[in-house]
Amino acid sequence: MGLLDGKVVLVTGGGRGIGRDVAILSAQQGAKVVVNDLGGGIHGEGADKSPAQEVVDTIKSAGGEAVANFDSVADLSAVNRMIQQAVDTFGGLHVISNPAGFLRDRMIHNMTEEEWDGIIEVHLRGHFNVVRASIGLFRNQQEGNYVMWSSTSGLIGNVGQTNYGAAKMGVAGLSRIVALEGARNNVRSNTIAPGAATRLTDSIPTTDPERIARREAMRAINSPERPAQLAVALSAPASAPLSGQVFGAGGYNLSIFQQPRPIETFSREGGWDADTIIREFLPRIEKHITPLNDTAISGGGKAPTPVNG
């Protein structure tokens, strides 16, 4: 028995990187898989049908069931066609995992409108599109599961990725509200901030020898399979009723993220003006201030807790 027996899974960006592993692992766990991939380059250029078709061929050669789709998640009409293809081909749809995307990194003072818009369109609008195209189906059948893909570039921050970070922080907020709105109809949504060595991470520019060395050292354990395994687990009925959470997965580590909540609240009779804020409020919150560490420095939180078994 597989964790996803009887389920139909749509994986966007399923031709390469993390999406490829999500598609293959989902099939290994018994799912019928729609493998979507436009086949664009790391900056979104071009289109190539071969990555998605190669993953479909891999799944079929192992005895699984899969079909390819070559549309863009940035086009709502195209995403509607993906959903219909799943229903027409396999009789339904139960899970959507949406890691499709690319990078257009630039410091904000040099970023063009095209570099901003392209990232927001694919990552944030792309997540909206897959939800908008499928939520009616999921609500009607009283079952549906989204695995959305964020990034520590948004949750923590990373220099040179304001467009990507803003989109990925937005994905986490989108997922939380989809989970809240979907709860009464058994529609779940969780978010993963992955750490994996892929063609996208390789493209992030750096001249810092320490970061380059760390990237190479991480490659050995940071296979795309690591976050893909978490995505499959979150896709499974066995993980219900878990919803609205943000997880990290990279190397041998799994994490669960805190979500923004007030740390401490201060009240002042008559309210606050600028002078009393400077004099009374700011000194009291000093211990709570988050330092300006980016993703490469922060490591995402506390040291990992070993788990045996």
TrEMBL record:
Domain Ketoreductase: 7-203
Protein's UniProt name: NAD(P)-dependent dehydrogenase (Short-subunit alcohol dehydrogenase family)
Domain of life: Bacteria
Coiled-coil segments on the chain, per record: none
Lineage: Bacteria, Pseudomonadati, Pseudomonadota, Alphaproteobacteria, Caulobacterales
Gene3D superfamilies: NAD(P)-binding Rossmann-like Domain
Source organism (scientific name): Phenylobacterium koreense
